[in-house]
Design brief:
Length: 195
């Protein structure tokens, strides 16, 4: 018997990992769960649930690839965009004024030769409290929106650090602990749902 199942998969041209689960019942129906994962460094992809189809063997033979193609392409695009997004965030961070000032200060300290009577100290880069507060408030609003969408892992990635906002240490530690706990619970719930 010859099938073209794997040729159909190859024709989609989507590099990644496929997970297929096929369950049969006493009436001759089948339930097929398909989960596709492209290579992506964002833990948020673990929140994607499998695409599930149920029908007779003949129904699935006729419609399987027709039904899964669109969702698969969208899933692959999302994961590719997530990966590109993560890279752009890292690039933006490296290029940010704060990072540049920090690097310049470190470079100046490393190359500065101490004077005989006193060491030269560079002033800290000045960022207004208002600007810092605006960035913090906006980021925390984004965290809240992600929590409402059950995107706990994504919220964790944008949560401000205690080092940048030491006056908010207790609030940030509690929020981080909450997000880690919720992300863990959500991931376990998805695993239980998928198994």
């Amino acid at each position: 018997m010859t099938t073209n199942f794997f040729q159909n998969i190859a024709s989609l041209n989507l590099p990644g990992t496929w997970k297929l689960v096929i369950q049969t019942d006493a009436d001759g129906n089948m339930t097929v769960s398909e989960l596709f994962n492209a290579t992506c460094g964002d833990k948020a992809v673990k929140l994607i649930i499998p695409y599930t189809l149920t029908g007779t063997a003949q129904d699935l033979d006729e419609a399987f690839f027709t039904k899964i193609t669109d969702p698969l392409v969208k899933t692959a695009e999302l994961q590719t965009n997530l990966e590109a997004h993560l890279k752009s965030v890292e690039q933006a961070k490296a290029a940010s004024k704060l990072e540049q000032d920090k690097k310049n200060k470190e470079k100046a300290q490393a190359t500065a030769t101490p004077k005989k009577t006193e060491d030269a100290e560079l002033p800290e880069p000045k960022i207004s409290k208002e600007d810092k507060k605006k960035v913090y408030d906006t980021t925390m609003e984004n965290v809240t929106e992600l929590i409402k969408k059950f995107k706990f892992s994504e919220a964790l990635t944008i949560l401000p650090s205690v080092e940048e906002h030491p006056n908010k240490e207790n609030e940030l530690k509690k929020k981080r602990q909450y997000l880690e706990q919720q992300a863990n619970l959500y991931e376990k719930a998805l695993l239980n749902y998928n198994s």
